[in-house]
Specification:
The complex is a heterodimer. In chain A, about 40% of the residues lie in helices and about 25% in strands. By secondary structure, chain A is an alpha/beta fold. In chain A, strand 4 and strand 5 form a beta hairpin. The two termini of chain B are about 30 Å apart. The chains are: A alpha/beta, B mainly alpha. The interface between A and B is medium-sized, with 39 and 27 residues.
């Protein structure tokens, strides 16, 4: 079966700075894939290239369609939800308004999806009229996940969901990501600094170094890999 | 669940308690004054009508400021030009109210076209957009003078000249009609922004364009719609100004300055602030003109800006503005 997402030799640059030097990777339907790497390795830019928030070259194929020069709003409408750095929630708007925006590309009432996402985040219902900027960091990350879910995407792109969160919350967030993947059939591509947890939940992983894929394979193999252990897992 | 202890909902609507108290006190003062003196009541209603016009033009400025972070200096001239369009329609024997609604439609299209054609190409640069709006001001002014001439023109009166009496107080139908139309258009706009998917998307696009595009919002179109709606509000302000100022190319210039003062008074980012700022300014100036001997017509604009200065000294972000907190 053809992969859900396939990148072939994708390059991207910010002005004079080349951020991606030809990234190739693929994500199969129904899996969780992780992208690991140090700061500046191009993890975030890889996600931005997929969602069209940075201009990119090379071949990007999603669900059998070329993404070509599609901008972020067009990519979103194709069924890719991107939770960016800084979570992409609207701090000025209420929890409910954020969720309604998540459902923006969908027809009909978002009520059913809202009921469904509440089984994962029961606190959303009682806090629906709260301004989302007043939520804690962990709650905002959960709201970002819920917002992405409301989009009913075929592919979820997550940029460092662990950033700035306490260790227990990180575990909680990744438990929910795993549940969404298993129960809702959501395909996930997650970028993470925290290689430990990413390799635990992902089936496959890619290690980026200066804008290229340096290493890839099933998470279990990468966990045993000498250089991954030393550089990213720290033992 | 971990870390989800229930917290008190933070009050961050931008309205502080002292401001609410002052506004409430002012409202009580106006009501009591109106009950005591019929002239006071008349002047208050006339001031509200004038202030509603300031308010709707101020709201147009705020809409564009929130979306484009620029004061649209051409907003008043655009309002004036669309009022001339209505005038032209009535010359062609279109009835007043049909011309009114056709003009709103034309204003909407005009606003969208202006955003798409001249603003969008330079929207990454705030200073370029400002210069463009100043250029539009001059261009529109010139085009109107060329097409219709600079002399006074007159349109049919939308509300007639009747006067209603409540006890010893006389209210002109003109003032009440102006108040009704402007407030209705503000409410319709508020309903659109607050309760529709499109309105929510427009707010999202103005607040965080990058995040909005990630959920599938076509941000550029939302900004264009914002300019269209601002032009509609301007047209309402222009059409409601015409019965008292009559039609001339300069009719909206002073009003734009009052609207600017009202918008800043309200906090520039706050739609409710713009409307309340406009109404307050209208009433304040009318009552000052009635009761304070030296406040002649020539001094109205300076007094308005002195008031604005005073408010900004005490509350630099305006009455309803919130302190800017932006992650960089």
């Amino acid at each position: 079966m053809a992969p859900m997402l396939e990148l072939e030799n994708v390059t991207a640059r910010y002005g004079p700075v080349q951020a991606l030097h030809g990234v190739s990777l693929s994500v199969a339907e129904g899996e969780i894939a992780a992208v690991l790497g140090a700061n500046g390795a191009g993890k975030t830019t890889t996600l931005r290239a997929i969602s069209g928030t940075v201009r990119r070259h090379g071949r990007l194929q999603f669900a059998g369609r070329e993404l070509g020069g599609a901008g972020p709003d067009a990519v979103a409408r194709l069924g890719i939800a991107h939770v960016p750095e800084g979570r992409g929630t609207f701090a000025e708007l209420t929890v409910w308004e954020n969720l309604r925006l998540g459902a923006y590309t969908r027809r009909g009432s978002p009520k059913d999806d809202f009921a469904r996402i509440q089984t994962y985040f029961p606190w959303l219902a009682e806090r629906r009229n709260q301004q989302s900027g007043t939520l804690s960091g962990g709650e905002q990350q959960m709201l970002a996940l819920a917002r992405a879910f409301m989009q009913r995407p075929r592919l979820l792109l997550l940029d460092e969901p662990s950033l700035g969160l306490a260790p227990l919350l990180v575990t909680e967030i990744f438990r929910i990501i795993k549940e969404l993947n298993e129960n809702e059939g959501l395909t996930v591509l997650v970028v993470e600094q925290n290689a430990h947890i990413a390799l635990q939940v992902a089936q496959n992983a890619y290690v980026l170094e200066v804008g290229r894929v340096a290493l890839s394979g099933p998470s279990a193999e990468l966990q045993e890999h000498e250089s991954v252990r030393r550089s990213y897992l720290g033992y | 669940m971990i870390g989800l202890a229930k917290r008190k909902t933070a009050v961050s609507t931008g309205v502080s308690i002292p401001v609410l108290v002052i506004l409430l006190a002012a409202a009580v003062f106006l009501v009591i004054g109106s009950l005591v003196s019929s002239i006071f009541a008349q002047q208050t209603v006339a001031g509200l009508a004038q202030g509603a016009i300031f308010g709707s033009l101020a709201l147009a400025l705020v809409l564009i400021y929130r979306a484009t972070e620029v004061i649209n200096f051409a907003q008043g001239e655009l309002a004036m030009a669309t009022t001339y369009v209505a005038y032209q329609l009535t010359l062609w024997h279109v009835t007043y109210w049909l011309a009114f609604f056709l003009t709103l439609l034309i204003a909407f299209v005009l606003g969208v076209v202006i955003q798409v054609v001249v603003i969008r190409p330079v929207q990454h640069s705030v200073i370029a957009v400002v210069i463009i709006t100043v250029g539009l001001f001059i261009l529109i002014d010139g085009l109107v003078a060329w097409k219709w001439g600079a002399d006074l023109k007159f349109m049919p009166a939308p509300f007639g000249n009747q006067v209603y009496h409540a006890g010893s107080v006389a209210f002109s139908r003109q003032d009440l009609g102006t108040l009704l139309v402007t407030i209705a258009s503000v409410i319709v706009l508020w309903l659109l922004f607050q309760f529709t998917k499109l309105g929510l998307a427009m707010r999202a696009a103005a607040l965080r364009p990058a995040a909005a595009s990630l959920v599938g919002v076509r941000v550029n179109w939302m900004l264009a719609l914002g300019w269209g709606l601002a032009a509609v509000l301007g047209a309402v302000a222009g059409l409601m100004t015409e019965p008292t100022q009559f039609l001339q190319p300069t009719m909206m210039q002073a009003i734009l300055l009052y609207a600017f003062a009202a918008a800043v008074l309200g906090g520039l980012e706050s739609p409710a602030g713009a409307v309340i700022g406009g109404l307050s300014l209208g009433v304040f100036l009318n009552l000052i003109g009635q009761y304070v001997g030296f406040a002649s017509a020539e001094l109205r604009l300076p007094i308005a800006f002195a008031l604005l200065l005073l408010v900004l000294l005490l509350k630099p972000n305006g009455l309803f503005g919130r302190r800017q907190v932006r992650r960089v």
